[in-house]
Amino acid sequence: MKSQKKMVFLLLIAILLLPVITACGSTQKSSSSKTSQATNDPVKQGTNKMKQLNNKLQAALKKNDTDAIKKYGKQINTQWLSYENGVRDRFPLQYAKIERYQQPIYAQSNLADPDVAQIKENSTALTGQLNDLLTAKETKTKPSKQMDQAVDDYLKYADEQIDMLVKTTKPFVKAVKAGDVEKAKKLYTLPRIYYERAEPIAESFGDLDPAIDARINDVDNVSKWTGFHEIERALWEKNSLKGQSKYADKLMTDVLDLQKKSKTFKLTPKAMVAGAMELLEEAATSKITGEEERYSHTDLVDLQANVDGSEAVYQAAIPALNEGHKDLANQIDKQFQAFDKQMLKYKKSDTEYEDYTKLSKDQIREISNELSKLSKLMAQTAKIF
């Protein structure tokens, strides 16, 4: 009897515990399913592989192993290209941030003497962005909000460039006022990069753009000519900075004025895309002729900066392009990559490219053609907004 009662008692306990056991099994299966889904997600997989390569890059940076730094810098780019389309479609906001740090790493890895300090800085920032991507939620917003967000993101980018313009113009102006020709020559191209990236914004402020960036053929009275190019002529044609202090002071005043006005600047989506398109068109037709930097022959620096600024517009517009225009987004992305790859052949450092006068007519034509393709694709984008 005791044995039978014991069996009945155990049976009742088993029946009572059955739902709990089943629930636990279900929870485990659900958890396992979620883990499996996360593991099989191509974006998660790609990001984890990219993180591994970035960790190897950082180890190489600690050892100051140049060959390994170049190797992993290039492998990070290859890995990014293998899955970036999925990121652009699902996580467009994170996509632009990763591009911001990944691209400079790749560019440096192609140089004979890469800037290790800069790679380290970008690699550290890239780690944070990759971690953010692993936990990010897919971007799903209404088209109108996407456009507004695109403008906000681009204006943030432009503000950053103009802030850096101010920061880098200060030492340049100081060298000019000190009469130090060689130092001023070395410092000339850096503020030019930041100005050319944000040029569409600068052109919106009446006389500020010509005061800062006018070429000699743009002014009716040469005695009233001011800005970067007036000083450029003194540096490379006259090899003297005599009498340039007033132009240096004027340049600094105008750059600070641009910074102040840009903080409250309002922009529409159409104007944003149109500015990028016009910048590319100008680069492809007039700047490619060598007339922009006719004394220093640093024209390729300007061209690359113009494309960088236009690419920032494209990246900001990706969420809107994803809504029914993915083919166009893919075409634009590939064209930016094609242009950057071509320009790497002439790049010596972040602020130095091949002297424009050393390029053959065929090389100039190739660059012009790539710029024209970009301009036409951006023109299609303008029709969407």
TrEMBL record:
Gene3D superfamilies in alphabetical order: M75 peptidase, HXXE motif
Annotated spans, Disordered: 26-49
Keyword Hydrolase: no
Biased composition (Low complexity): 26-37
Residues making up the signal peptide according to the UniProt record: 1-25
Coiled-coil zones: none
Biased composition (Polar residues): 38-49
Family named by the database record: Belongs to the EfeM/EfeO family.
PANTHER family: IRON UPTAKE SYSTEM COMPONENT EFEO
Record-given protein name: Iron uptake system protein EfeO
Origin organism lineage: Bacteria, Bacillati, Bacillota, Bacilli, Bacillales
